[in-house]
Design brief:
This protein is an all-alpha fold. The chain is built from twelve helices and four strands, in the order ααααβαααβαααβααβ. Strands 1-3 form a two-stranded antiparallel ribbon. Strands 2-4 form a two-stranded antiparallel sheet. One of its GO terms (cellular component) is formate dehydrogenase complex.
């Protein structure tokens, strides 16, 4: 929920900047970060020159455009100097890259600390020896196709964002050139595949990710991850549903739309639009990777037996009863309790 709140605040801030209107436009290029002496000269020349409204077709200078949102089409090829490019570079390589790097480094450490301090969620009962099908072959293929394409995008995206600072110094320009070029090609071509896989995943799993009244109990108890209480859940628990709607759907949609804007640049979008898309793409991708780390943790060492379900498609009957009791009752035709009371689970 904190990740979603942070994402919403970031989106609100960017939207406010984009739609600030005439107030920002009255002082030409006030917030631009000049990179060259020519820009300094132009800034001095235009210092007291008022501009048209932010969304006006007269806004911006065709040959020195900074923030025009309209469709230049082929004529934007005549834009020689775009001062917003340096503003974008400073934000991308500065605050955004630093925040992304911090989150991506701290999250695994927090998960390790949680594992050592709290421990995994375990069942007290011995395996029943009877296997229940949890995911069919199609569901597993869709999941792993989406997961592998995401991992390819995450790895190549990290190289594109941090490669010059992390890899170039010890690789050298010759080797890093090929690493960066191959990463860029893979990122551009795997991106549309990831979008397709995400759409198929949504269609495949959406029916079982609708929130039910009992999910609120799971959320209030934090899934029993800390208290080790038994919280009855359906086919997917509330945590998995939050990952589905917040990660796969919301963050996946942000990455997909902005990724297409950046990937296919021949549809008339201006450089300013691409810069805003890049901001959102980096923010969405960072939050997606952070959430994915939590998902991977819960689906592996955090909940022993969960990985087996997606690997082979089946789970032990007692595991199903312990972690997804309402689903177990449904498929075994057992009468579910009318008001399930969380039971203290022994921590092993």
């Amino acid at each position: 929920m904190r990740s979603l709140t942070s994402l919403w605040r970031s989106l609100t801030l960017l939207l406010a900047l984009m739609l600030a209107g005439h107030a920002l436009a009255e002082v030409p290029h006030r917030s631009a970060k000049p990179a060259y002496a020519e820009e300094q000269t132009i800034l001095q020349t235009e210092k007291d020159t008022p501009e048209s409204g932010f969304l006006s077709t007269a806004s911006g200078k065709v040959h020195v455009d900074r923030h025009y949102l309209g469709q230049y089409g082929s004529t934007e090829g005549t834009v020689i100097l775009q001062r917003g490019g340096n503003t974008w570079r400073l934000l991308r390589n500065g605050p955004i890259a630093m925040a992304a790097g911090f989150l991506l480094l701290v999250t695994p450490l927090l998960l390790l600390g949680f594992y050592l301090g709290v421990g995994p969620v375990r069942t007290t009962e011995q395996p029943a020896g009877r296997r229940l099908e949890r995911f069919n072959r199609w569901q597993r293929w869709v999941h792993w196709a989406t997961a592998y394409s995401f991992l390819a995008l995450a790895l190549t995206g990290l190289i594109i964002l941090f490669g010059k600072n992390v890899l170039l110094p010890w690789m050298g320009h010759g080797i890093f050139y090929w690493v960066a070029m191959i990463s860029k090609v893979i990122h551009n071509f795997v991106g549309p595949l990831f979008i397709l896989c995400s759409i198929i995943m949504f269609v495949t799993f959406v029916r079982n990710n609708i929130f039910r009244r009992w999910d609120w109990q799971w959320i209030k108890q934090g899934g029993g991850l800390v208290s080790h209480k038994h919280i009855p859940a359906g086919y997917f628990n509330a945590g998995e549903k939050l990952w589905f709607w917040g990660g796969v759907v919301l963050l996946g949609l942000i990455m997909s739309v902005t990724g297409l804007v950046l990937d296919f640049v021949n549809f008339g979008q201006t450089r300013y639009v691409q810069q805003i898309a890049n901001y959102l793409h980096l923010i969405g991708a960072t939050l997606y990777m952070v959430a994915a780390m939590g998902h991977i943790y819960i689906g592996t060492v955090g909940t022993p037996g969960a990985y087996q379900a997606m690997k082979d498609g089946t789970v032990d009957a007692n595991w199903a009863k312990a972690h997804h009791e309402l689903w177990y009752d449904e498929i075994t035709h057992t009468t579910p309790p009318t008001s399930p009371v969380p039971q203290r689970r022994r921590h092993e």
